[in-house]
């Protein structure tokens, strides 16, 4: 220890250089130790983990598209292949046909027409006439748009007596004085409870649109929405308990309903 102290530099500049060098070496050793520890954890999980948790049983998240493509029949890999027949040993099989898009979806027409110069016959110079149309459809998704509704309530007052100010009251809101409209609350609730999208991820998605909504605010909205729908939940529970048979968990069991005094 005394020998190590004697070898220390005497000037402050040299001491700073030595400290910086030691800190760099410490960070390198720590990073190496973390890497080795992670490798040990992976090997232990692979060697001693449960069969359902081993990595070989789980496909890579990044190879999902390729994995799905390998499971499709050959005629379904390309959705642009026209309907027809394919030769199979002994007979001909009709190829799969693409399912039509739902008729209730709104349609936006895009007309692809010839220019006026192209509507002239190259053989005799006569004007071409329309003889038919080729129609194809594509599915398009418009990303969610974040907008701000500005409520402007006009105020009126008598210019003579100045008796008071009159204005239209604010429309009823699910959560008074909250930033969220009913549509916004429904979007957050469906994303969380139907699409399994956590609130912290919704916070990140909204941040990409320039909206900073803390996770605590989103959570408070969901709690308030739960309080709003509690009467409906109670009604559903009462209606369920009125039944002589309740089906749950995919298994039908007879349940005797007893009135509690």
Describe this structure in words.
This protein has helices spanning 2-6, 12-48, 64-71, 182-194, 199-207, 215-241; strands at residues 85-88, 91-94, 155-157, 165-167, 245-248, 251-254. The strands form three sheets. A two-stranded antiparallel ribbon has the order 1-2. It is mostly helical. Among the domains are: 2-53; 173-254, no CATH class. The longest helix is centred in the N-terminal third of the chain and has 37 residues, at 12-48. Helices cover 38% and strands 8% of the residues. It contains six helices and six strands. Residues 36-110 form the Transposase TnpC homeodomain domain. It comes from Magnetococcus massalia (strain MO-1). It holds the Pfam family zf-IS66. Residues 119-161 form the Transposase IS66 zinc-finger binding domain. Residues 57-103 are annotated as: Disordered.
Blueprint (SSEs and pairs):
Elements: H1 2-6, H2 12-48, H3 64-71, E1 85-88, E2 91-94, E3 155-157, E4 165-167, H4 182-194, H5 199-207, H6 215-241, E5 245-248, E6 251-254
Antiparallel strand pairs: 1-2, 3-4, 5-6
